[in-house]
């Protein structure tokens, strides 16, 4: 529908849902299946992306070395996850779609995400404490330190945990919903 960047265009949500629901309803008698397409995290300069970014500063990905905000939302942030999952469930209920492709569920670079939620979860899961310092060699992308490896492994697990939580929440609404995913930036494995 040309509006995969839903988070940058919240003002179009109702219209999009109504249109998709009409299309799905028209196709169901012909045994057609419908897959919608969203992008999870990137917020763009078009639409209301900047406004959404400012409204959700507490949910943005942060650099590991100095906590600067990025342009994407953090998949570990509990509020972001809850809001996103609720949006997906509402969308399924309103539209009746059979599948959902969700792009960019990721940490956008190897230097993301160093937000408070990621730091706390990383420490709880690994017993490592992530330094906040632009001169630390422990998280340098060229480093082979045990902490760096633990960080990369944890990022993969965190993204996997996101998908598991989303699947578990959706199966109560539509157990046979099909999920697809795509990443154009870093995906589960960073290429540095």
Structural features, described:
- With about 190 residues, this protein is of the alpha/beta class.
- The protein has five helices and five strands.
- A three-stranded parallel β-sheet has the order 1-4-5, with no helix packed on it. Strands 2-3 form a two-stranded antiparallel ribbon.
- Strand 2 and strand 3 form a beta hairpin.
- Helix 3 packs parallel to helix 5.
- The model has no long low-confidence stretch (mean pLDDT about 85).
Q: Any key phrases for this structure?
A:
elongated, 5 helices, 40% helix, 3-stranded parallel β-sheet, 5 strands, two-stranded antiparallel sheet
Radius of gyration: 18 Å
Sheet of most strands: 3 strands, parallel
The share of residues in helices is 25-40%
Spatially, the strands of the biggest sheet line up as 1-4-5
Q: Which structural class should the secondary elements be placed in?
A: alpha/beta
Q: Report the end-to-end length measured between terminal Cα atoms.
A: 34 Å
Order of helices and strands: HEHEEHEHHE
Number of DSSP helices? 5
User: What is the average of the pLDDT values?
Assistant: 87
Judging from the principal axes of the Cα atoms, what is the shape? elongated
Fraction of residues in β-strands: 5-15%
Low-confidence stretches: none
Per DSSP E runs of 2 or more residues, the count of β-strands stands at 5
In short:
This protein is of the alpha/beta class.
Write the layout of secondary structure elements.
Elements (H helix, E strand, L loop, with lengths): L12 H15 L7 E5 L9 H7 L4 E3 L6 E5 L4 H18 L3 E5 L12 H11 L19 H25 L7 E5 L10
Parallel strand pairs: 1-4, 4-5
Antiparallel strand pairs: 2-3
